[in-house]
TrEMBL record:
Coiled coil: none annotated. It comes from Halomonas litopenaei. This is AraC family transcriptional regulator. The lineage of its organism: Bacteria, Pseudomonadati, Pseudomonadota, Gammaproteobacteria, Oceanospirillales. Residues 245-274 are annotated as: Disordered. Residues 158-256 form the HTH araC/xylS-type domain. Keywords: DNA-binding, Transcription, Transcription regulation.
Length: 274
């Protein structure tokens, strides 16, 4: 999947979903309401929101609305190579407002897309270039500027692990983890990535998946209950994330454990019979 830029209205009925690519939504006209993993907000003309991959989000447009939407997979040109720093935009959901220069550039993007659309499908490489420029401008404005001694303080990952594991069933926001570490959200995210090489969301997701794997191996709980216990919104969300991380569905893990334990159980049964 390559980056894609599209202009659409959002349904006025409340919808919800998640997807395995990042997304930026910028209102061109009208308004829309979003709730991204518990972070709620409203976007109007020249305001927008960042939806990281695999974040469950609810949304609804109001009246005659029109949104510019950027879909960005992890391996998009705009997020890799020389532009890898731009991936930090998607460490956490957030809302933003465009300043005057970005409003002008957004107008150019819309006009360019409309003009090219008259000639046929907009070339993917052209969309990638437009997306990269827009992301670079957003990153320059939204990146944290905290400095000083606190900037270099290390996060106690063991304590954070205990906190995550004790509250695994809840929906975490980066702000929750930052508050536990006594840091601002921006500083926490920056320090966390420097220490672990991953975003806070990726880290929490890994612990959720590890916990779900242990429950699959050590219990007979139904998958829906395991999903609830490990913080997934629904069973299908766990299944998708599990397959992506481990390369196979949860059912295969459970089946493998059953195949291993069955011969042992048969051996013990036969031994007791003697």
């Amino acid at each position: 999947m390559s980056s894609a830029i599209r202009q659409i209205p959002l349904d006025t009925a409340t919808r919800h979903h998640s997807h395995d690519y990042h997304q930026i939504v910028i209102a061109l006209a009208g308004r829309a309401d979003f709730d991204i993993e518990g972070l709620g907000g409203t976007i109007e003309a020249f305001c927008g929101c960042i939806v990281p991959a695999n974040h469950l989000h609810y949304y609804a447009g109001t009246g005659n609305n029109r949104q510019l939407i950027l879909d960005l997979p992890d391996d998009a040109l705009a997020l890799t190579g020389h532009h890898h720093e731009l991936a930090r935009l998607f460490d956490a959901p957030r809302f933003f407002t465009l300043d005057a220069p970005l409003k002008q550039f957004l107008g150019f993007v819309v006009a360019e897309m409309n003009q090219l659309a008259l000639e046929g499908p907009v070339p993917a490489l052209h969309q990638e270039r437009l997306a990269t420029t827009l992301l670079g401008s957003l990153h320059a404005r939204l990146a944290g500027d905290e400095t000083g001694e606190m900037h270099h303080r290390r996060i106690d990952l063991r304590a954070l692990d205990r906190y995550i594991d004790d509250h695994l069933a809840r929906r975490f926001k980066v702000a929750d983890l930052a508050a536990f570490a006594c840091l601002s959200e921006t500083h926490f995210t920056e320090r966390f990535r420097a220490q672990t090489g991953m975003s806070p969301w990726q880290y929490v997701m890994r612990r959720r998946l590890e916990a779900s794997r242990q429950l699959l191996m050590r219990s007979r709980l139904p998958l829906s209950e395991i999903a609830a216990l490990t913080g997934f919104a629904h069973q299908s969300a766990l299944s998708r994330a599990y397959r992506k991380h481990y390369g196979h569905p949860p059912s295969q893990t459970r089946r493998h454990v059953s195949e291993i334990s069955s011969p042992n159980l048969h051996h013990l049964t036969a031994k007791s019979a003697h």
